[in-house]
Amino acid sequence: MPVVVPVKFPFASRDLWFDPHGLDIVQGDYAICSTERGTEFGMVTADPREVAEKDLSAPLKPVLGIASDADCDRADELARRGEAAMADFRELVEKNQLDMKPVGVEFLFGGEKVVFYFAAEDRVDFRQLVKDLSSRFRMRVDMRQIGVRDETRLVGGYAHCGQELCCTRFGGQFEPVSIRMAKEQDLPLNSSKISGVCGRLMCCLRYEFEAYKDFKGRAPKKKAIIETPLGRARIQEYDTPKEQLVLRLESGKVFRVNLADMTCSDECVKRSKEQGCACRPDTVTRDILDKIESPEIKLALMELDREMGVDVGDGLDSSDRIAASSPTPRRKKQREAEAAAAGQGSGRSSRGRGKGKAEADASDASSSQRRRRRRSQAADGAAPEAAAQREASAQQPAGAAPSRRRRRHLSAEDRNEAFRNAAARAQEQERATEGKAAPSDQAAPGRSRRRRHKSAAEGARSEAPRQQQSKPDVPSVAEQVASGEVKVSRRRPGDGGGAAAKSTQAPDAARRDQAEAGDAAATQKRRRRRRSRKPRSGGEGDSPQQ
């Protein structure tokens, strides 16, 4: 079997095999090789190895020798000459007005010729350019057109991921990349997202295509239903690098599970045998859910165990428990009041757990009886204060704390009775005030105002009877309510804006309202219309000034 050694050249897209001819050459050495173009300088990328005859497409070229330090210096000098020649290359391309992009210049190690690399979309007539380059460099010129991928590989750079370009770092032969590879990897079909610096699809799409294809061939399809102890779950997305599935339960909880941990149900195995296809897992067991570090899943499993009758406690560790403190004084008083209201005997402690269900029913019944008794007393016309006092004294147990008095709504009859009592009390107070003020009014005219010095309070009290005597003798509202001439009624929604109250007004008040309305109408009729002081503009009705 022939022995070969791979060698990498600066402007070559992949490694080339050469015959070492028994030289002690290893990986990392620089070698001088004979190629179809001439003598070239390259680096050995691997140790010599044997290959089959069928893998060789052409006879092997020999390795002339291992490069010395002088050969390495010469190679560096030729590389600098190539960089300097790029300026002349661009100048002559612009002079000849050719549609091409200069990429690089390579001087061969043996000095046979110089190779000019350029990129162009179409064929270019560069015959005049070759003549100009030959006359300037005094060497044989070779023009080589390359594609955009080779151009990017020679120039170098960094990709969207922040790493060095794959074509520059890995090299090798370019393989075709299709849009189907991007679809298989669930990437957005946006040209700016999946295209590289060269404008073509990224090379890394092909690197990971096989891994995505293999994972999707073994995993259940998206939106498939997976059976779990917590109910059915649906596959939401894939995590191919980790070979995990993201599942979503019907309750909304989301968790991840490894594809290797999932199992196939008996129905799935039977269906795969009938159809003659691979069996895809569709079940997640309980032991797999127990391994998931998710608080939501653990709580859901505890709830499931409680429903199944398994005693799982409260799910708290002893270090996480909080010691219950003794009840506060306020809570103690509330418990004692509840125990007293329920009629508990001395046999039970006031620090018990409270009333039982039977005691609660008894208290509800007693409260409903009290409400019915209050309604009946209110309907009979009893005073609300007396009824509340009798009720509290009859039902309040001995030694118990006084309960809070509840607000009670008065009926229409009770409200009218209260208004009449208030009017009667106000009338009695007015009569008592008039009786006390009469003697002082009689003695007042005989005295001199200059000699008597009154205080401000005494002056106000003396002026009040005089004002009352000067006013017309019109009964007050309290007197009218007490005599029954005016009936007090409450305005309710929908009564037409108090129409019922307007109908019960006194005749004097109605006549006074009519008089005021007549005066307002007369005033409105006597009001003159103000004329505008602005001069009229010349119109149809205007007469010319004389």
TrEMBL record:
<feature type="domain" description="PSP1 C-terminal">
    <location>
        <begin position="61"/>
        <end position="146"/>
    </location>
</feature>
<feature type="compositionally biased region" description="Low complexity">
    <location>
        <begin position="339"/>
        <end position="349"/>
    </location>
</feature>
<feature type="compositionally biased region" description="Low complexity">
    <location>
        <begin position="378"/>
        <end position="402"/>
    </location>
</feature>
<protein>
    <submittedName>
        <fullName>Regulatory iron-sulfur-containing complex subunit RicT</fullName>
    </submittedName>
</protein>
<dbReference type="Pfam" id="PF04468">
    <property type="entry name" value="PSP1"/>
</dbReference>
<feature type="region of interest" description="Disordered">
    <location>
        <begin position="311"/>
        <end position="546"/>
    </location>
</feature>
<dbReference type="InterPro" id="IPR007557">
    <property type="entry name" value="PSP1_C"/>
</dbReference>
<feature type="compositionally biased region" description="Basic residues">
    <location>
        <begin position="524"/>
        <end position="536"/>
    </location>
</feature>
<dbReference type="InterPro" id="IPR047767">
    <property type="entry name" value="PSP1-like"/>
</dbReference>
